[in-house]
Amino acid sequence: MKSFLPRIEIDLSKLRDNARILCELYGQKGISVMGVSKAVLGEPCIIEAMIQGGVKYIADSRLENIQKMKAAGLLTDFVLLRTALSQAEAVVKVVDISFNSEIETLRELSYYASENNKVHQTVIMVELGDLREGVLPCNLAEFISKTLSFTHIEIVGIGCNLACYGGIKPDERNMNELSEQVNLLEQEFQIRLELISGGNSANHEWYKATQNVGRVNNLRLGESLLLGRESMNRKAIPDLHTQAFQLVAEVIESKSKPSVPVGMVGQDAFGNSPTFQDRGIHQRSIVALGRQDILVSGLKLDGDLEIIGSSSDHIIIDSENHNLQVGDEVSFDLDYGSLLAAMTSPFIRKTFVNYNSDLAA
Ligand SMILES: *Cc1c(COP(=O)(O)O)cnc(C)c1O
Q: In degrees, to the nearest 5, what angle opens at C-alpha 78 toward C-alphas 221 and 165?
């Protein structure tokens, strides 16, 4: 039988290596690693590889993904990164820890926790400049004070998230501010904050450069576990695998054609008026994969092949120097955005290499 196309090939042994190396690296300065599963929709085999590599918690922004991982039999501490008021009841039932930044939501979580005879644990997110989620530092003490009044909520820590909306770099200044906030809150309220979650894959440079991580003792990593890169400059992290995922698609047409379309130019399928550079007659190949499946701008081809365009269902490649034939397979590297799209597309089959799982098939 021929392999399914298009498919994403996922090398689980490379993912285990990445997890092990990152846990060792961050462990050197006392930082634990939370594996972030959302980009791969909580795919249980992938998450199991992270756990085999040593990650301590698994965090996702979507309850559905966490439910999938639990149903598959994964045993770890699950953390919800994004909490919605309307989901409070389900949140309490599905996870023990959630990240929060709204009092109304915490009130609701406390209510449902008490209904279910549970204590729900929370990490309070602090806004340190990136302007996505988080309580402003000037309001933090009041926020913690209100949260402490909820009978079925336990504050296990505080966290921050940078480099997502505003592109703000984690650095000495904002990381020290997080540590100072921890110290202030612990003094003011006579509490102990166990989990200080300083950020994501963008914290790598700060970590490498800093002499002192302060109170930060956790990072939440998606991209660097999966793609082996930090996410501030997208540099590869030494010794990590950057090609644990490969997207493979099929050539369905390969012909020599002019490089400039013939006729009057109006709009393309997406409302753009394209322009073209005349390279003369070149061999062009079409692969059966398109914008409905993938973020084309995040794909990379090795060697002599170059992506020259795409539509909903087709990617067009200049294959002048490669001579692709109909039926050939083409492999692409993916960035984070393309990985997200590929894992979400129902048309792309997920296939595993170096499978070594205790989960039921
Ligand atoms: C997605 C997400 C992460 C993981 O980010 P990476 O850049 O993939 O490491 C961490 N924290 C939060 C709150 C997230 O939403």
A: 40
Q: What is the pLDDT of residues 94-125, one digit of tens each?
A: 999 999 999 999 999 999 999 999 999 999 99
**Domain-by-domain residue ranges, the chain?**
11-227, 245-353
Q: In the chain, where do the E strands start and end?
A: 7-11, 32-36, 57-60, 77-80, 97-100, 120-125, 153-159, 195-197, 218-221, 245-258, 281-287, 299-300, 306-310, 315-318, 329-334, 349-353
Least confident of 10-14, 242-246, 276-280, 293-297: 276-280
Mean pLDDT in the chain?
96
**Residue 2 annotated as catalytic:** no
* Amino acid occupying residue 125: M
Note the CATH number of domain 11-227.
Answer: 3.20.20.10
Residue 148 to residue 119: CA distance in whole angstroms:
12
Are 6 and 247 contacting, i.e. CB atoms less than 8 angstroms apart? yes
Question: Do 11-227 and 245-353 agree at the fold level?
Answer: no
SS3 content of the chain, % helix, strand, coil (to 5): 30, 25, 45
Instruction: Give the pairing type, strands 57-60 and 77-80.
Output: parallel
Model confidence at 357, pLDDT cuts 50, 70, 90, reads confident
What is the distance in angstroms between the CA of the first residue and the CA of the last residue of the chain?
Answer: 20
Whether ligand 1 lies within 6 angstroms of the CB of 220 is answered as: yes
pLDDT-derived band at 2 (thresholds 50, 70, 90) equals low
DSSP 109-123: HHHHHHHTT--EEEE
Nearest Cα residue to atom 6 of ligand 1: 222
Q: What span, in angstroms and rounded, lies between the C-alpha atoms of 69 and 72?
A: 5
Residue 329, amino acid: E
- Please tell me the predicted confidence (pLDDT) of residue 360: 61
Q: Which of 57, 79, 81, 234 to mutate to test the pocket of ligand 1 (most atoms within 8 A of CB)?
A: 81
Domain 245-353 has CATH 2.40.30: yes
Q: How many CA atoms lie within 13 A of 330 on its CB side?
A: 33
Paired residues of 219 in beta bridges = 33
d(CA 15, CA 254): 35
